[in-house]
Amino acid sequence: MAKAYINARIWRSDAEAFLIEDHRFVQIGDNRSILEAVKDGEVIDLKGAFVTPGFIDSHMHLAYYGYYLSTVPLGGCMSAAEIVQALNAKKEEMVPGQVLQGMGYNESAFTSGPKAITRADLDSVSAEIPIVLTRHCGHIACVNTKVLEMCGIDAVTSIEGGEIDYENGLLKENAMRPMLDTLGHANAAEFEEYIVKGMQALNAYGITSCGSDDFLLRSDSYRMPLDVFLRLSYQGRMTVRVNEQCEFRTPEDLASFLDEGYTTGVGNEYFSIGPLKIIADGSLGGRTAKMSEPYADDPATTGTVDIDEEKMDIMVGLANRYNMPAITHAIGDGAVDQVLRVYRKYLLPGNPLGYGLVHCQIMRQDQTQEAIDSWLNCYIQSLFVDSDAAILKERVKPELAETSYPWKTLYENTNTSNGSDAPVEIPDALRGIYFAVTRTSLMSGDLMNQAECLTVDQALESYTEKGAKAFGMDDAIGRIAEDYYADFTVMDTDITQCPVEDILKAKIIRTVVGGEDVYCA
Ligand SMILES: [Zn+2]
User: 481-510 pLDDT, tens per residue?
Assistant: First the structure.
């Protein structure tokens, strides 16, 4: 049955109404013509509310975000003592054999006590229950002695591509693997629960599509996550369209995926295979992002490489033969150098396959220029401003800070889409737009190079059209236009007209995917 939405204030349009049939926009126009066209169909009066295409979060971890919502959330804890208190409260409900897990802590934001959480803190909660906390960057875990014992990690253990601080119970990068393996992986039922929980939360933030990297978090291979996503999509249970950013532990695993006939573009309207995802380094907060020079605030380190160049080359080359492009997490300029070296071998003029750079943080001017000249898809996370604005100036020299997070330059010269990297950040797109426009941390008040601020319109595009383009779906999503899927977001404020602070107060009142309500305030 046809549905007419009338009295809408549509972003960048003089139209005030639209008609939806068979999950798509079929007509956009004035109230009168749409009311005539709908005949005896349903009419929904939006009463002047602001309507944009559904928000597209171009990089996150959907299942891991759902999982995060099921653990003890530590994002708001401002001291080690608060974390201990939150864990002690949860400990009471635990059944034997369960692991006590907390996620999202950020010691650099602590406002009292030492700016650290350690094994001793967790041992004070319990010596018997295994306790695992994951830092908000997702690249560092803090564990108690029980977990170290279970993983067989002692004072002399070393792991390639990882770092172990045995004394403090900190596992970085690849050193988190034995811990993840010991915890066990999610089964299909749990994984499904995470996805559904994650999608519901996204819908409440106005998000209708996402680029998501899910194969290796709470799983060690693509098989189970892929089966769950395909099943949910065929059952009509997806409320967010997912473009999977496919991560593999080994070239062999990637080869068997490709052998089965999967490659970029395979799938259906709710779940599709996106690019190969590679992680080249760690995070800026954890000083594991790979720099070309030592950290300004820790001259003993240049960070960590998560994948050596040879292995990366093998995987990128293999995927490339199946027309599957790579997108790579590279935060430090040292990692960006490695990525650009590998990409040069495979990139075609104009980048038709859609190779990309995820995060685009610590970058030199020559690297930004190469990304532009190669038409790389750039995946930025403006939400990072809040925690990174303060640490950027500590971690790198002023010249490098100045050319880092070059979002406007990238935005104006290549396809640059925005996302949250959830659960690293809460996937609140309106907040993301605020930070893209202000580049000013609410937490610390620090401003990042003002010349790289986006306008509200550009920030909105980075959360709609640009994401669609990154997924190769710009003929189907990201716009309110005839024949496009009827994915849209309704809010109570025209954020292109209000004072910038009011963007933070704007409320999502309705989210629609394929013509169906998936969220109503
Ligand atoms: Zn990520």
Answer: 999 999 999 999 999 999 999 999 999 999
